[in-house]
Structure formats: structure tokens, C-alpha cells
Amino acid sequence: MLFIDPHVHMTSRTTDDYEAMRKAGIVAMIEPAFWMGQPRTEAGTFKDYYSHLIGFERFRASQFGIKHYCTIGLNSKEANNEPLAEEVMELLPLFVLKEGVVGVGEIGYDDQTPAEDKYYRLQLDLAKEVNLPVQIHTPHRDKRKGTLRSMEVALEHGLDPAMVIVDHNNEETVKDVLDRGFWAAFTIYPHTKMGNERMTEIVRQYGHERIMINSAADWGISDPLAVPKTAELMLERGISEESVRMVTYQNALAAFGQSGQMQESDWLAASPIDQSLKFSGNSILRGGQTPRVETGENENDSRIIR
């Protein structure tokens, strides 16, 4: 099976993760802009970060046969620094229409403060203006309240629920999200949030329509192979292969493909891996390492460059 991970922070991960993900069947991934573990203090750090997402990180993923996309936005946690948030909002229009950007995100609420609400609304308006999907981060605290508020505000701003992916759902929120016509995304974290056994039962109960799963793997304890591992468990527990394909591949493509930036042919007809290539003079290789260069349609048909 082929998989898409529609929420994974690969800037925080290693090349070993990329190799393992591709071997497990992940062919495409979406990296939402998020916070880096500590607050940023200058708008220039956001500019460089967004540039990295649409530049070197896309290149790095391609070196392992994975198509990289991203969503661009001001995360809710850092929206509380209003002077900085104002500067970042001026940057967003410069990036949201770049190649490989499939949405505005991840945005929404963290502590559900007035500042978070202000910049969430401004970014919803931006997404509507440029006709991009929205990727919503729902809060860890007061989850249901924040999820309902996120959807209510999106509707208030005239967004079509079919253009909005509500992320980090659980059993408490899934029905509300699906009943309102939004996409329901679920993060599979080890030992917290939504484990793959719980996810299997949600798909058994609600079916596969408008549901997708992701790893949200980042700099914390997380698993970039959460999507293929959950697919394997679902099949073992009797979930149909069609349902597994929908929640681990097709629904993510349908939702984010509305951006016009993401098509299945991007990876099915991708250029062969060529690790001898460089990005702005930089290589993923270190001294003495041998680049992998595919020479045919079969990814195992490679030659060695010396």
C-alpha cells in the first residue's frame, strides 16, 4: 500500500526517518508550519523557516523518494506575541502561493485567548482570499470547546467545511466534526492523544468518509511511521483495505489536493532519486558517502556514482 502522512514536522526529523518512511510506503507528506519548542523573537526567523519549508526540506525529502508539501501559517501559541504576530501576518501572503504550499496552517487555538482568536480569523480570511484549504490545530486543553469554536468561527468567516481539515481529534470531537461536514484528522502519538488501537475502533464506528490519520511527528516523542503502523493494525483487526486506503491515503489527497498543488502524478510519475544533486550548493551527503542514483522506473535499479 501507498501512504500519505498529512501532518508531520520533518524539519525536526533525521534522514534515517525519511529512509524508513519511504521503505514503509509513505510517498507524500505535508509539513505544517508550527512552533519550534521555544518562542521565536524576530519576524526574520519565521521568514527563514517558511523559506526552509518550501526550499531545502522539499529537496531533502525528494532525495529519499518522498514528495514534500507544506502548509504556511502563524501557529496559535506564538500568536499571543501580538507585536511579532503583526509582522508575521505581513509575511504570509508572500509564501502561501508558493509551489508546494497546499494550505494555510496549522492555525487555530491553544489557550483560546483573544489574540489567538484575532490571528486565527485573519488567517481564515487569507485562506478564503487565496482559495486554499485550512489546517486547524485544536487545543490540548478544553478540546471539545476549542474544536467547536474553531468550526463556528470558520463558518462565520464563510469557509466551506470541505476546505477545512480539523486536526488532533479524538472520540470526544469526531462526531461534531463529521456532522458539520469538516474533514476529521487524527494524530497517532505513542502513549497519548490517539493510539492506533483507538483509531481502529473509530474507523470501525464512523467509517472512512472525511477521516484521515497522521503522525504529527516532531522534536518530541513521536513516531514518523505511525500511519503505516496504524494501517497494518487496521487490516489485522478486520477493517477493509478500501477503508484503510481512504484514511491513510485518498482522503488526504482529496482534501489537500483542492489547493491545486498536489496531484497523485507528483509521486507516481516522479523523477528518479538522484543524491548527487545539490540545493544551493548543499548536499544531504557527507564526505566519503556514496550517492544513490536511480536509473530506471524500478526504485531498486540504481547505479553508484564515484
Describe this entry's structure for a reader.
Keywords: Hydrolase, Metal-binding. GO terms for molecular function: hydrolase activity, acting on ester bonds; metal ion binding. Belongs to the metallo-dependent hydrolases superfamily. The protein is an alpha/beta fold. The chain has a single domain (3-278), classed as TIM Barrel, CATH 3.20.20. The protein has helices at residues 15-23, 43-54, 56-62, 82-95, 114-130, 143-156, 174-179, 196-206, 226-236, 241-256, 265-268, and strands at 3-5, 26-32, 67-72, 101-108, 134-137, 164-166, 183-189, 192-193, 211-214, 292-294, 302-304. Strands 1, 2, 3, 4, 5, 6, 7, 8 and 9 form a nine-stranded mixed sheet that branches. α1 (15-23) links the parallel β1 (3-5) and β2. α8 packs across α9 (226-236) and α9 (226-236) packs antiparallel against α10. It is globular. The two termini are 34 Å apart. 42% of the residues are buried.
The helix-strand sequence is EHEHHEHEHEHEHEEHEHHHEE
CATH fold field value: TIM Barrel
Number of strands: 11
Low-confidence parts lasting 5 or more residues at pLDDT below 50?
300-306
What is the assigned CATH homologous superfamily?
A: Metal-dependent hydrolases
Per DSSP, the total helix count is: 11
Oligomer: single chain
Distance from N terminus to C terminus (CA atoms, Å) equals 34 Å
Q: Strand percentage, roughly?
A: 15-25%
**Which outline best applies?**
globular
What radius of gyration results from the CA coordinates? 19 Å
User: Class by helix and strand content?
Assistant: alpha/beta
CATH class: Alpha Beta
Percent range of helical residues: 25-40%
| Mean residue pLDDT | 94
Whole-number count of domains: 1
Protein name: Hydrolase TatD
Keywords: Hydrolase, Metal-binding
InterPro entries: Metal_Hydrolase (IPR032466), TatD-like (IPR001130), UCP005295 (IPR012022)
Pfam families: TatD_DNase
